[in-house]
Write a structure and sequence with these properties.
The chain is α+β, with helices and mostly antiparallel strands and about 475 residues long. The protein contains 15 helices and 17 strands. Helix 7 runs antiparallel to helix 15.
Length: about 475
């Protein structure tokens, strides 16, 4: 429970109980202080250490910043940034001044262990907007896992079932938001790194248009603003569609021109495809959600994808692995046939080691063609609904098994674990904005969610659609303390 500036309890205004817009409004009016809001988050983190989501914390610095925010708000609320006084966390993959990266976090041969001299670009933007940084959330080494475990910080469990995984690589981010340890988290997403944990933890994640928010200062990541990664995107994780909209307007003020048009355009849906394993549980949940939306008056059209899903997934893997700086086993690539849609992820990765420039350019050309297909598709639709992934719960991975060689069981059939990202790859390859929209309570052990994709640069329209759909689905993130 948060406390008003005068010291009286203020029920319903903790970080897990009110929208960001409500918290920001109460902070500006003096009904709520940033110091007590930050203290509430710190108390939750300390009392629920078993969650192990926020693994690097500077409580004293956060409280000092909160007091400074309170002074600013009392003196010049109109001149304060839109996030002024709101506590936030950042995924460990982002540079934060004074925090070091460990050897396991960086590329082979790169420097490590020295505290960062400056903030990542998006962290600096958040501070400029007035956010109070609590600390950094757990992530696997080099953000390279669908589970969240780090040799120096341990495992982050699911916030509502310690026997399950929160997903990865932004599992610490999603778990912290779901548990009310922060009001929002700055995460990252290559091929579902934020969207999959958001589904599993029952929260909302926005992966914006590729390059629309600078990823400079993400490790691993670009070395300069001109050195873009193929699919890496800064992402935002929050507890509601309204919160994502509030955050997007804070980071990209004035970006709302497309929102009005989305209200009249139909929404497309594709819930099954060759090459994408889907549990009967998730399929039934998403089918029921579509019917609920239709019964509420939303026009939801069943369509065919404008791209071939298995071929898109193969291209996604090739783009991702060709960007890595690690070689496969000596001579492996020469011994492997050109990968197909049926190849195991580890076979594709080995083939991509040492990929020639000519083949790399061929992948880029194929990607450009796919992007043109999406451009034509979104000329007629406000958004596309797909699954985020075909599994409702994920067990912690055995870290002795490489991710690309691991498998999971879906309705009795073994499938490559990494192929759970096949739906997320649609937005990743094309660089399109996408949101995870949860459709059921993760405390039940069944976590299902829509991935809502929109056209290039149409975040405002996308978030408008998500907010309208979430109102029908009555998406509410439960509190780890039993409070809604």
């Amino acid at each position: 429970m948060s406390v008003a500036a005068g010291g009286a309890p203020l029920a319903g205004l903790g970080p897990g109980e009110a929208t960001l817009a409500t918290l920001a409004s109460r902070l500006r009016s003096g009904q709520l202080s940033s110091e007590y809001l930050v203290a509430d988050c710190l108390e939750r983190i300390e009392s629920e250490r078993d969650l192990n989501a926020v693994v690097e914390l500077d409580a004293d610095a956060a409280l000092r910043s909160a007091r400074a925010a309170d002074r600013l708000l009392s003196r010049d609320a109109a001149g304060a940034g839109p996030l002024c006084g709101l506590p936030a966390t950042v995924k460990r993959t982002f540079e934060v001044c004074g925090y070091p990266h460990l050897e396991q976090d960086v590329a082979p041969g790169a420097m490590f262990g020295r505290p960062a001299a400056r903030d990542a670009a998006v962290v600096a933007d958040a501070r400029t907007a007035g956010a109070i940084l609590l600390g950094r959330t757990n992530a696997p080494p080099r953000a390279a896992d669908i589970d969240t475990w780090h040799p120096a910080f341990g495992r982050t469990p699911h916030p509502f079932d310690a026997g399950l995984s929160p997903g990865g690589s932004s599992g610490g981010s999603a778990a912290a938001v779901a548990a009310g340890h922060t009001t929002f988290d700055i995460a990252s997403d290559d091929v579902g790194s934020a969207r999959i944990p958001a589904q599993l933890c029952g929260v909302f994640a926005l992966r914006p248009t590729l390059g629309s928010v600078s990823a400079l200062g993400h490790v691993p990541g670009p070395l300069t603003e001109a050195d873009t990664r193929e699919m890496l995107s800064v992402s935002l994780i929050a507890r509601s569609a309204a919160d994502l909209g509030f955050l997007w307007r804070a980071f990209r003020p004035g970006d709302g021109a497309e929102a009005d048009r989305s209200a009249s355009a139909p929404v497309a849906v594709v819930l099954s495809s060759d090459g994408a394993s889907m549990s009967s549980e998730v399929a039934a949940t998403l089918d029921a959600a579509v019917e609920l939306l239709r019964s509420a008056g939303h026009r939801i059209d069943e369509v065919d994808l404008p791209v071939n899903l298995p071929e898109n997934w193969l291209l996604c893997q090739q783009l991702l692995y060709a960007e890595e700086d690690e070689d496969g086993p000596p001579g492996t690539r020469n011994d492997l046939p050109t990968p197909t849609v049926d190849s195991m992820p580890i076979e594709v990765a080995w083939w991509c080691a040492g990929l020639s420039h000519r083949r790399w350019l061929g992948l880029k050309r194929t990607r450009a063609v796919l992007r043109s297909h999406w451009q034509r598709f979104f000329a007629g639709y406000a958004a596309l609904l797909t699954p985020v992934m075909g599994l409702a719960a994920l067990a912690p991975r055995d870290q002795r098994i490489p991710l690309l060689a691991d498998e999971v069981v879906i309705d009795g059939a073994e499938v490559p674990t990494f192929s759970l990202s096949v739906w997320c790859a649609l937005a990743s390859v094309a660089g399109l904005p996408a949101v995870t929209l949860p459709v059921c309570d993760p405390t039940t052990g069944t976590a299902a969610a829509f991935q809502v994709i929109a056209g290039h640069g149409r975040e405002a329209a996308l978030l408008d659609v998500v907010e309208r759909l979430s109102a029908v689905l009555a998406c509410r993130v439960p509190s780890r303390r039993g409070r809604p």
